[in-house]
Specification:
This protein is α+β, with helices and mostly antiparallel strands and about 140 residues long. It contains four helices and eight strands. The protein has a single domain, classed as Aspartate Aminotransferase, domain 1 (Alpha-Beta Complex). A hairpin with a 3-residue loop joins strand 1 and strand 2. The longest helix is centred in the N-terminal third of the chain and has 18 residues.
Length: about 140
């Protein structure tokens, strides 16, 4: 079985964010950093070279595949600010929250935001809280 390349490490989160070239994306990243710290109560940690994760959980699929991943996280990508929300609440609840968020795109387990001024920060926080709660319920700490 292939080993995950994206794993937690000791790279410095603030150094990584300070190196983001796009001014707005860098500033927005520090806002999301604080938001996720407040929501999770966890310290941020670099996962791989470009993702900042908060907390972690251990998953095991029926196929036998298992591993560790962060509860929530983000990455200031060139094209957008990517929010990882793998554990989002039920599909209907997630869609209702997203309908109130503002300008965004979604992908499998990800939310893409061009800039934070495009979205309602309270709704973003609600979405992150729902995702973290859903993951904690699905994968309770042992």
């Amino acid at each position: 079985m292939a080993k995950l390349k994206t794993t937690p490490n000791n790279l410095n989160v603030e150094d990584f964010l300070n190196a983001v070239e796009h001014d707005t994306r860098r500033e927005d990243s520090f806002v999301v950093l604080q938001m996720m710290k407040d929501i999770t109560g966890e310290a941020p940690q670099m996962w791989g070279t470009s993702i900042i994760g908060f907390g972690n959980y251990h998953y095991k699929y029926d196929s036998g595949r298992e591993g560790d991943w962060f509860l929530t996280g983000f990455s200031p990508r060139k094209k957008s600010l990517t929010i990882y929300m793998m554990g989002s609440a039920s599909a209907s609840s997630r869609e209702e929250i997203l309908s109130r968020l503002g300008k965004h795109k979604t992908g499998r387990g990800c939310l893409y935001i061009n800039k934070l001024t495009d979205v309602d920060l309270e709704v973003l926080a609600e979405l992150i809280r729902a995702g973290v709660a859903a993951l904690k319920e699905k994968y309770p700490a042992e």
